[in-house]
């Protein structure tokens, strides 16, 4: 059966650490959406690994990792990651499988991603520049190139020419960028085609066979609920469906096979790039969170915007994802704050709103209704049991549970594998 791990905020909730922690009890770890825009950090034996495309379970010698059809794959980023792992003594061959029907990110997607965002002017999104939105656009525009097409020389050349016909028109006539030659890309990617071929299979058939055999699959979401193209803070979102339902589409498994859904929530909130963020803290406290929490993007290095925990958002995430339990991360970062606030609702033009509004006008201009709890001074990073935690820490956790209506099952208090407390 399948367990899905999803982000309940704007990404960077600590999904990498959670996946690495949970992976031990699973046979297969599979990514279902997003691409190299993800930055999943795992720390093992004091060594830090950052994954962009490869599932965060790859560090275990006997686990199978799958990059599903819902992911957009940049062969350059993938090969870089494989080499980086090999250099660190981590074997990838025979452990990694890539979906034949996943779409491939090519140079023009990356160029267009950056140029388009610049041309958006005031509507700039602050994308990661990894060619994510532009690859998905081509997928839906039906001029995308899938992995199976990419590794077939004839098909690749044919499809590349068709795609470039249109892209070059845009580059030449509209963006005033240099045009790209299909032959050049074809040659440049020869090496990538050869290297990637050995990982390519029909992952939908593979995963369903494994489910039949009774194997356990962990589906690793990238980004988070509020970056979801349908449910996030549109247009300040990514171009895929990070929510749990995305796992069925992005892996080719039936909703009937999903057994459990785990939400990952950071004990406060962060966001990278543009877009509304009601609980954002723009003063010294926000700066302090960024510094203590080391809130800098794992993919782009950009400073993350920081703010208080927004229970209204996480509550909505619990509903649309069907979350069974929450893993609360980075709670240790909140040590030393005199008071800690929790957003519990919004006020707009005198009216109280108790849910996450889809209207960007309301969400961008609302006032947050906060509740406050007392902070704590104790360093909690080495606590092993929930019972022992300081009173105020438990009060904060229980307040969050009360506001989101879902139980917190585990609490992460640091980046290392062992720094996690089981609540029950
Ligand atoms: P993980 O998996 C946080 C943000 C970008 C930008 C918006 C659109 O590490 O949680 P895109 O390049 O996807 O078109 O950019 O989405 N974004 C993320 N923010 N964590 C991520 O991934 C993100 N992936 C994309 O900053 O605002
Ligand atoms: Mg990240």
Roughly how many Å apart are the termini?
23 Å
Number of strands: 20
The appropriate CATH architecture of the largest domain is: 3-Layer(aba) Sandwich
Q: How many helices?
A: 14
Strand fraction band?
Answer: 15-25%
Uncertain regions spanning at least 5 consecutive residues = none
User: Level of helix content?
Assistant: 25-40%
Largest sheet: number of strands, sense, barrel closure:
10 strands, mixed
User: What value does the average pLDDT take?
Assistant: 97
Provide structural commentary.
- The protein is of the alpha/beta class.
- The chain has 3 domains: 161 residues, Adenylosuccinate Synthetase, subunit A, domain 1 (Adenylosuccinate Synthetase, Chain A, domain 1); 92 residues, Orthogonal Bundle (Adenylosuccinate Synthetase, subunit A, domain 2), CATH 1.10.300.10; 158 residues, Adenylosuccinate Synthetase, subunit A, domain 3 (Adenylosuccinate Synthetase, Chain A, domain 3).
- Helices cover 33% and strands 21% of the residues.
- It is built from 14 helices and 20 strands.
- It has a 10-stranded mixed β-sheet with strand order 9-7-5-2-10-1-11-15-19-20, sandwiched between helices. Strands 14, 16, 17 and 18 form a 4-stranded mixed β-sheet that branches.
- Strand 3 and strand 4 form a beta hairpin.
- Helix 3 packs across helix 4 and helix 3 runs parallel beside helix 6.
- The protein starts with a strand and ends with a strand.
- It binds 6-O-phosphoryl inosine monophosphate and magnesium ion.
- 6-O-phosphoryl inosine monophosphate binds next to helix 4.
């Amino acid at each position: 059966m399948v367990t899905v791990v999803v982000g309940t905020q704007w990404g960077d909730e600590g999904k990498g650490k959670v996946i690495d922690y949970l992976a031990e009890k699973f046979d297969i770890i599979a990514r279902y959406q997003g691409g190299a825009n993800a930055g999943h950090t795992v720390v093992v034996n004091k060594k830090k690994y950052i994954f962009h495309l490869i599932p965060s379970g790859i560090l275990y010698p006997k686990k199978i990792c799958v990059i599903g059809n819902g992911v957009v794959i940049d062969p350059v980023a993938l090969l870089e990651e494989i080499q980086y792992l090999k250099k660190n003594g981590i074997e990838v061959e025979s452990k990694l499988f890539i979906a034949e029907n996943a779409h491939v990110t090519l140079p023009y997607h990356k160029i267009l991603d950056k140029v388009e965002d610049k041309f958006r002017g005031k509507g700039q999104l602050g994308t990661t520049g990894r060619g994510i939105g532009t690859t998905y656009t081509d997928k839906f525009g039906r001029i995308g190139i899938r992995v199976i097409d990419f590794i077939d020389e004839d098909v690749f050349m044919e499809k590349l020419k068709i795609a470039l016909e249109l892209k070059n028109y845009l580059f030449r006539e509209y963006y005033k960028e240099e045009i790209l030659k299909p032959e050049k890309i074809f040659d440049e990617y020869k090496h990538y085609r050869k290297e990637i071929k050995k990982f390519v299979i029909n992952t939908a058939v593979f995963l369903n066979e494994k489910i039949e055999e009774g194997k356990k699959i962990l589906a690793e979401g990238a980004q988070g609920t509020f970056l979801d193209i349908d449910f996030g803070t549109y247009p300040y979102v990514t171009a895929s469906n990070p929510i749990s339902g995305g796992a069925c589409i992005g892996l080719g498994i039936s909703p009937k096979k999903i057994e459990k859904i785990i939400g990952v929530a950071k004990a406060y909130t962060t966001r990278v790039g543009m877009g509304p963020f009601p609980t954002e803290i723009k003063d010294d406290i926000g700066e302090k969170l960024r510094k203590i929490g080391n809130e800098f993007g794992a993919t782009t290095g950009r400073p993350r915007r920081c703010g208080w925990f927004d229970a209204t958002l996480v509550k909505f995430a619990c509903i649309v994802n069907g979350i069974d339990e929450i893993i609360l991360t980075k709670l240790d970062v909140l040590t030393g704050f005199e008071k800690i606030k929790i957003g519990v609702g919004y006020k707009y033009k005198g009216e109280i709103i108790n849910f996450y509004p889809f209207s960007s006008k309301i969400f961008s201009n609302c006032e947050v209704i906060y509740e406050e709890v007392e902070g704590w001074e104790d360093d909690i990073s080495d606590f092993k049991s929930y019972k022992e935690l300081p009173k105020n820490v438990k009060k904060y956790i229980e307040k969050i549970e009360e506001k989101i209506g879902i139980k917190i099952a585990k609490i992460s208090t640091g980046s290392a594998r062992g720094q996690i407390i089981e609540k029950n």
